[in-house]
């Protein structure tokens, strides 16, 4: 059996979907108020918001055993709240009868044994045969990682040629072990409902239903976050919560032809 220890090779990774003519508000510099109520003309920058913890620091947000179909490989995983919106993955009790270069990945959807590429993953860390997984590492998944449904172990090619090439281990890249994630993070929008408004400047994209429920939005040229959010009757913060993989430009415009989620249940 191989114990969990030592250094690992970190490879941290990151739902974007479908974009306005309206100007996008930008932070303004404000004047500080003098004691007599007059402004003293000294401009101060608006502070940049910092992520806040959604759970008390030290709270376990999720815990699972990642186990292979045969039971010969397993790893215990805990996700713990750290300060300032950061979560850490704590790994322990790594056991395997087939030591080999391995990686751990957090995946968006439910994973199964034998699955291949999981698309965009979070918290990916790899280690060689002689090292084993790290005891803990920062989970690069944002301040609310409860959109992640599974954590998996995936054999990878080693940095040392003696570890064996892919032709010698044809299962490289396929999910060996799976653990389901049940999160202890409260839903910030338990009653969130989406309504579909008319298309217009800044929100000309198209909507696709799934079983009668508006689910996907394909971004049109010029769409931007504020206007698209208004079209669906939600705030920009709620829209971003529904799309944890969303990537925005500096001016908050959406990427043309991206397909975005507009169903809270589909987050």
TrEMBL record:
Keyword NADP assigned to the entry: answer is no
Q: Which PROSITE patterns match?
A: LYSM (PS51782)
Q: Signal peptide span per the entry?
A: 1-19
What InterPro entries does the record tag this protein with?
A: LysM, LysM_dom_sf
- Listed CDD domains: LysM (cd00118)
Q: Which Gene3D superfamilies is this protein grouped with?
A: LysM domain
UniProt keywords (A-Z) are:
Signal
Where is each LysM domain found? 215-262
Per the record's keyword annotation, is RNA-binding included, yes or no? Answer: no
- Protein name in UniProt: LysM domain-containing protein
Which organism encodes this protein?
A: Curtobacterium luteum
Per the UniProt record, the lineage of the source organism begins with: Bacteria, Bacillati, Actinomycetota, Actinomycetes, Micrococcales
């Amino acid at each position: 059996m191989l114990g969990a220890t030592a250094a690992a090779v970190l490879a941290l990774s990151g739902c974007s979907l479908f974009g306005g003519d309206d100007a996008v508000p930008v932070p303004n510099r404000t004047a500080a108020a003098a004691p007599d109520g007059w402004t003293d003309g000294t401009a101060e920058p608006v502070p940049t918001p910092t992520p806040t913890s959604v759970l008390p620091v030290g709270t376990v947000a999720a815990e699972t055993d990642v186990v292979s179909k045969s039971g010969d490989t397993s790893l215990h995983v805990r996700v713990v709240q750290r300060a300032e919106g950061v979560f850490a993955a704590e790994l322990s009790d790594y056991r395997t009868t087939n030591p080999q270069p391995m990686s751990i990945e957090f995946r968006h959807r439910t994973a199964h044994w034998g699955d291949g590429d999981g698309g965009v993953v979070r918290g990916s860390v790899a280690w060689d045969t002689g090292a084993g997984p790290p005891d803990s590492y920062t989970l690069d998944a944002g301040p609310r990682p409860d959109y992640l449904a599974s954590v998996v172990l995936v054999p990878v090619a080693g940095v040392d040629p003696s570890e064996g090439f892919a032709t010698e281990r044809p299962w490289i890249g396929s999910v060996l072990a799976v653990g389901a994630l049940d999160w202890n993070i409260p839903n910030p929008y338990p009653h969130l409902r989406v309504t579909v408004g008319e298309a217009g400047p800044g929100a000309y994209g198209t909507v696709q239903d799934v079983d009668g429920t508006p689910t996907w939005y394909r971004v049109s040229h010029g769409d931007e976050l504020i206007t698209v959010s208004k079209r669906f009757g939600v705030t920009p913060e709620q829209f971003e919560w529904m799309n944890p993989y969303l990537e925005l430009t500096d001016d908050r415009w959406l990427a043309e032809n991206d397909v975005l989620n507009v169903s809270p249940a589909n987050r």
